[in-house]
Design goal:
Blueprint lengths: L5 H8 L14 E3 L15 E7 L8 E7 L2 E4 L2 E2 L8 H18 L7 E8 L5 H11 L7 E6 L10 E8 L1
Parallel strand pairs: 6-7
Antiparallel strand pairs: 1-2, 2-3, 3-4, 4-8, 5-8, 6-8
């Protein structure tokens, strides 16, 4: 079994495959359908991008899920090995979001919503300057931003989760 770290999982979202024996393909599709013979059951197709297998403290997640014409991304953080200030980390996160949205067949002009977690609300203005330089000003999503005492690794300052149309 290949040892997977959260950093490896995040590098997948950045388009980096960690070793040729990695247990993921970068993009995985899964047709999930409920049993049509069950009362009230319906069939739905769900495509999953970057399914991460459990390893150590890493949860089993998809980096992105697509249902119909809606794309849902997991919370994205900067690379813990390349930490900088909040502008740098926000830039890394937004670049990863761009890459995942592209793999899902969409882009930031089709964002519907964004959730932002900051470890220090004093960083709000600097975070927003990086966000405003990136976001499509003609098609901004609805957005919320809240304080989180800490993220999954020390030194991480921002995490962003988005939903987009295709």
């Amino acid at each position: 079994m290949v040892e997977i770290t959260r950093r490896d999982a995040l590098n997948i979202s950045a388009g980096v495959v960690v070793g040729s024996s990695a247990p993921w393909s970068g993009i995985a599709s899964a047709a999930n359908s409920s049993d049509p013979n069950k009362p009230g059951a319906s069939t739905m197709e769900i495509q999953r991008i970057g399914i991460i297998e459990a390893a150590g403290d890493i949860p089993i997640i998809s980096l992105a899920s697509i249902h119909g014409n809606i794309v849902y991304l997991c919370g994205i953080t900067a690379d813990p090995a390349r930490l900088g200030d909040v502008k740098d980390q926000t830039g890394q996160v937004l670049d990863r979001i761009d890459r995942l949205l592209s793999k899902a067949g969409t882009d930031k002009s089709k964002l519907l919503s964004a959730q932002v977690w900051l470890t220090d609300m004093a960083l709000f203005a600097d975070h927003n300057s990086a966000w405003n330089a990136w976001v499509d000003p003609g098609n901004p999503p609805v957005r919320m931003c809240v304080h989180s005492a800490q993220l999954w690794r020390p030194g991480l300052l921002v995490e962003i989760m988005v939903t987009a149309a295709r």
